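Reminder to self: tokens first, then the designed residues, so the page reads top to bottom the way the pipeline ran.
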């Protein structure tokens, strides 16, 4: 079997929204690569929305031409999934779909999901449900890096130990975790000298000056604290006596957050020329790399499960300076593709207070009467939707 029905929901693959996330870029890259390179005679797409098939097909064709026949499977058509034999979900909700598959039979089709962030409350709960769901050995959850695999193994082992202690469980279903990195359509990042010239002229940067580039969201709590990067570039400017420009390509959740982020960061690198561009624009996403000499990203968040931007930098021919952290460990080879800066964390057994605080934040219990009347009940028959980061 070489084919799979691809779960289609615009939110999983659409990069045109204001709140662009890494999972959107990863989804877009995946479905584009699948259409271009999959060794299948026909494509099977599972329409998980009420959107007409033709509208979704137009969205796909806008990414890349579709030169083979397309079969569309309706949201509730598990028989259609059975005919294909496998389904791919751009989310980790393998357990949720396993419950629904029981109507067609456990061998009707295999289910494969993929992780992006793993630390949100919703995703942690989704992974925990794998232990209680009727998954099968032919189902799998794709982990995009060794860091993700290790963290999920710890979570699942903890749940296994809890069930042994709580109810005397002697056996829990094995959960198949497969470590497969995200892919990239490298041709999207093929740069030309005219692009470099255009960006440097637009930002008023002489060709002889050094440009360091960061690409990603501007968020100190969700992505990284930018101050260490600012301090490092300030030191580099003073030590080398070179004219250094820092181009920040990304976006903030609001104008106020954007101002606070950049005002605070600028204060720590007064000797560096500071530039901000909106990284969500399609042309900017694929050409901004041409302006730079070095890619710089000291990620420190607990959800950097992979990190596409270092790969995009490599595809654009840029050396990288990144933190030796989570998914970055699997992509940037120290001294080959760039440099990984050492990171430190408390030894195992410490930080319980921080974990408790994070685990309880946003989980305040509300009485049933406080829930809006329009809220749907919590049930495993609810249609799958992509999870927010």
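Designed residues (389 positions):
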């Amino acid at each position: 079997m070489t084919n799979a029905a691809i779960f289609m929901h615009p939110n999983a693959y659409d990069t045109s929204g204001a709140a662009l996330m890494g999972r959107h870029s990863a989804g877009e890259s995946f479905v584009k690569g699948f259409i271009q390179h999959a060794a299948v005679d026909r494509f099977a797409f599972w329409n998980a929305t009420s959107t007409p098939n033709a509208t979704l097909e137009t969205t796909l064709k806008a990414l890349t031409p579709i030169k083979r026949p397309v079969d569309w499977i309706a949201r509730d058509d598990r028989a259609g999934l059975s005919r294909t034999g496998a389904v791919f979900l751009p989310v980790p909700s393998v357990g949720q779909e396993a419950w629904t598959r029981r109507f067609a039979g456990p061998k009707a089709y295999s289910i494969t999901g993929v992780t992006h962030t793993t630390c949100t409350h919703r995703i942690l709960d989704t992974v925990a449900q794998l232990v209680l769901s009727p998954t099968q050995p032919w189902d799998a959850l794709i982990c995009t890096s060794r860091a993700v695999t290790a963290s999920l193994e710890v979570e699942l082992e903890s749940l296994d130990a809890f069930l042994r202690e709580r109810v005397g469980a002697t056996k829990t279903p094995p959960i198949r975790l497969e470590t497969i990195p995200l892919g990239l359509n490298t041709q999207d990042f093929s740069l030309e000298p005219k692009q470099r010239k255009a960006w440097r002229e637009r930002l008023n940067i002489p060709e002889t000056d050094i440009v360091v580039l960061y690409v990603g969201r501007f968020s100190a709590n969700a992505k990284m604290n930018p101050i260490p990067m600012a301090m490092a570039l300030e030191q580099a400017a003073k030590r080398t006596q070179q004219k250094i420009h820092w181009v920040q390509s990304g976006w903030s959740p609001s104008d106020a957050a954007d101002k606070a982020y950049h005002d605070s960061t600028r204060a720590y690198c007064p000797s560096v020329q500071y530039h901000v561009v909106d990284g969500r624009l399609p042309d900017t996403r694929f050409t901004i790399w041409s302006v730079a000499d070095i890619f710089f990203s000291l990620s420190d968040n607990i959800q950097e499960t992979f990190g596409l931007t270092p790969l995009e930098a490599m595809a654009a021919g840029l050396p990288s300076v990144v933190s030796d952290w989570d998914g970055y460990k699997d992509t940037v080879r120290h001294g080959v593709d760039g440099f990984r800066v050492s990171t430190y964390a408390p030894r195992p057994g410490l930080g319980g207070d921080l974990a408790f605080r994070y685990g309880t934040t946003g989980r305040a219990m509300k009485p049933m009467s406080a829930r809006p009347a329009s809220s749907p009940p919590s049930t495993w028959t609810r249609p799958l939707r992509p999870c927010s980061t």
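Residues 57 and 70 are 9 Å apart (CA to CA).
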